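Question (not urgent): is this output format expected?
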Amino acid sequence: MQKISQKPLKNTMESYREITGRTFNRKQFRRTFIRYLLIPAASLLILGIFTCIIAYYSVFRVIKQNNNGTIHRISDYMDQVLYECEELNYSYSNSIYLNILLKRILQSDEKDYEISSSMSILQSVMFSQSIQPHIHSIYIYYNNPYGRFLTSSEQSYSYLDSYYDTGWYTLCQQKTLEYRPWSAVRELKRYSFEKVPVRVLTIFIPIKSSSSAQTSDYAIVNLNASYMETIIENTLPSADEGQMFAIMNENGEIVLHSPGLTLTDREISRQLLAVNGLIRLKIAGRQHVVTSVRSAQNGWTYYIYTPQNVFFHVPALMLSLILLFVFLMIVIEIPLLARLSKKSQSTLENIIDILDAAKHNQILSKENMRKDSYEYIIQSILNKFIENNLFQTQLSERRYHMQVLELLALQSQINPHFLFNTLHFITWNAIALTGGPNPASEMIESLSTLLNYTLRDPLMEVTLAEEIQCTVCYIDILKARFPDNFNIRWQFNEPLPEIKVPKLLFQPLIENSITHGAGSFRKAISIDIRIEEFSGYTGITLTDDGQGILPSRLEEIRRQMSQADSADTKHVGLFNLYKRLRLFYSGGCSLTINSKPSEGTTIHIKLPAVTSFPGCKDPDEDQCRLK
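Got this back:
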């Protein structure tokens, strides 16, 4: 080969530049930008968004679990407080002595020594019960004509007409007198000059009486609402971020809530009554997620308001960092991509020079080859290309000849070597013995026709009509041997599909049906052969009503069919036929078997709609036949 001149290469490169135009640099940069920056950045952004979504749900689940734990702790705390209040009912209701003593103290108009002593004891007990920080005061009231009641803050009994807190008595008169504790939120002012009243949560506990279903006797417990709200507020895990709580009593009234919950009790109650599980509410201009739980012990409902931004804090921070990283990546990589694009353009021009030289069986001079690893790799690839191309051509020819030899070897297994002249001599002798045609001569004549069809150019493809005609001769021979053992019915429409098939297509199928299908059956076996033409292929279905195939044996046959390349094909049978079909159609066919024991077997063959041997353009050409 000669060295390529500079002029042709220059013209080729100029033509390339004229085709691509000046926009090549922009296109190359755009492709490089999309490949090395845009796609990774988009992938990173998508990954970051999915990560933020996963983080949001993870944070949501953790906060929800924390809220559930917190709300149950609040519920347990309030249940314990209410239980302590109800213990007063048990103390005074179950003690007959205390009942009698209290009634005597409050209902007697005399104050002897025994009454004074008993009053001191009761005052001490009430004081010890009210000393807890969450209890503001305790009142004990038994119905009496003097309006007397005992308080934990006074040394003697007090009167309804003179005590600063008598609102509880008004509420008692308004309530249905039943043995059921109830609650209300009240405000107390001990002195008139007090500007800020004291909020108390009053628990009304009826003192049971065995003589009546109703009662007018009460134990009143005033709980310090501010103190209890502070205690509960400190248990909230996200109180610093605006998390709040609310507690609703059995009557649907808000009795305790966070100081930041600025809505009115009526508005809070209206919204909270609609809560069923986990919802979102807008409070003070911010969206909150509300978690609720209802106490089965006292019917109170507890709520926790969590600002929605608490759930988005971590995902928002992650997304901000990802966006910052993507922005920095774009800023840093754009200059690098511009340099890479320019280098890629130069490399592509060198590749075009080398390909142009290879196209004309020329090589570039060493002066034209740049000192670049890509140039060296491409030159090595081009040198190997010509060698590999020739090698692939030789390999295809050898593979083709190997298929021909294998097809010849398979075909030779079903071609018995009989002498035509001997068969003709036997035929005429049989006719001479009887003075005319007889079953023996007809059988020999059919055998002669079959052998002539088989031995004549074994690799020549035949039409479907020719194959059926030869199969009829084979059936005649079998009829002579087994006159009453089988019946064969053909089903096809005229004209038959114009396709080429290998010889002896039906013979192995019929032989299998008669030999293996009949088995120990005494009845004659029926064989139906149906030929149908479809779009793109021809279907051949052979069905018999013989003894069928056991499932285990059918599975073994299918497994061997799937390994037909390595299966033993020394015998004439189904494997031989399947392998011949695969070789003949280059794997473009299929053969399936379905069978049920005692019902029969069905074999379905799909042949491609080709009219000549694979690789032939004209069926009349000599190259369409293997020799």
